[in-house]
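User: Round two. Same drill as before: sequence, then structure, for each protein.

Assistant: Same drill it is. First protein:
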Amino acid sequence: MKSLLENKWLSIVLIMIACWNFGQGAYIHAKAQLAQYLIADAWQQSEFEQAQVKPWAWADMWPVAKLTVANHDIEQYVLAGASGESLAFGPGHVISSAAPATAGNTVIAAHRDTHFSFLQNLKAGDVIKISNKDGQQRDYVVQDMTIVNKNDVAWLYEEAHDYQLSLVTCYPFNAIQAGGDLRFVVRAVSQADISA
């Protein structure tokens, strides 16, 4: 009888732990989705006012671009900086790279299990549209996808074309533990550069 009671309590504890873990995962996704709505409002206001508008009072970031991939039904707002705080709420622009929709290599990072989970479905030829708050807009065509070591940053400085876009996230996409040594990089080139 005592063993049966102990097994019952052990089962209850294990179910509670499983529910807690599931709740944590759902919380991360819900937070990321809610943040995008608040960031969208800040984006619209920043376009209107031509100023940096924070999505909530205590935010240490603001939207700098809008990323759209129409054939994958993706519309996301890119935040200033790629710190952990920014990436918790949306894709982040790597400040040391070219500003969104301007000349150079624009690098945008995001988490593989939230905002950039769609990268695993991109194919060469897909079009990624980037708009900035100044009204500049540029269409980029996906050229290739590659896997690099997180310490290999040479690709950040490669500028074979006038306008490039690099989207980066952790790899593999289905890893149980976050982080790791590998990064998945999508490289795209301005449609205008291809046509020229």
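Second protein:
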Amino acid sequence: MTAEHTLGLTAAAEARLDEYLAQVRRALLGVPDVNSAEIEADIREHVENELRGAARPVELLVLEVVLRRLGPPTQWLPPGRVPVAAQVGATFSTFGQYLKTRFRAARAAVWRGPEDWRLAYLSFGAFAFGVIAFPLFPLFLLVSYILSRAGIATATDRGVTLDGGRKWLLYPPVVLVSLVVATAVVGAPIGIIVATVVETSEVDDYERWVAAGKPMVLSSWGRPTNVRMPDRQVREKFPEVQTRLDRVLAAFPGSPAVQDVLAVGFVAGGVLSAWWGVLGCVCGSFPGLVRGLIFPFHGVFSRRRAGWVGTAALVLLALWGAAAYRLAEAGGLL
């Protein structure tokens, strides 16, 4: 038989007593030096003694009088101890006040503050909204980048040194765009090399297939189908067929596998020489544009260094062109 039934409470009174005991258990949560089970047993015993002469079933109002005399659930804590829930609530309240203060400061800076702070908050707001609404991120990244560059330029014009707070607000979109530009500059020739090698291989496969008489895959009955024979099978069945690429590769030393590697390296050398030659000359001619695109990494760039890189790459390109002319002659392409 449960303690509630021995007390003879109504359903409403039983629910109220359960609620009071649950509040006591929550108050004692995280207090290892207090036995909550013993406290609960003491409370039940006290309530039973108080209701000994009361009429049964005991109504809710009668029980409320007893619980009011007992006091609040937190009174069972040791002196000086604060409930865990109150501690967590105080922590969240303090954090909420901090966020509210920072939001008010940001709003004041946006609407009434100095231009360098206003642009910093607007830039970071556009950047953060782009991260949240990810499909629109490129658009908001562009907006944030323009606002950041405007904020940096404004601070420079006024002779204001950007502190750590404004740098964290202004630099993320600028750094991200600079990295994208640098990656595009470095990765573009790699893409050109890959595309050139793939396209040359496809043209060579087609030329070999035509020179072999356009063979088709045979069916199980030995009759030709409408499926073009793979290049590997064409090479095996028609080893006598020579394409223009075969004649060019023959000018390289080593086995066919080594020749393929050397040919890809030769193509890469030409593409890289042309790319960095043109890029070095352009960067040397327009240093301001380069410094603007790679800010805040503009300190690593110098006009003289770009000129030297461009000149050296063009010299290598001239040597590469002479070697390419000799290879074309050896392959019978000229």
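Residues 242-334 form one domain.

User: Perfect.
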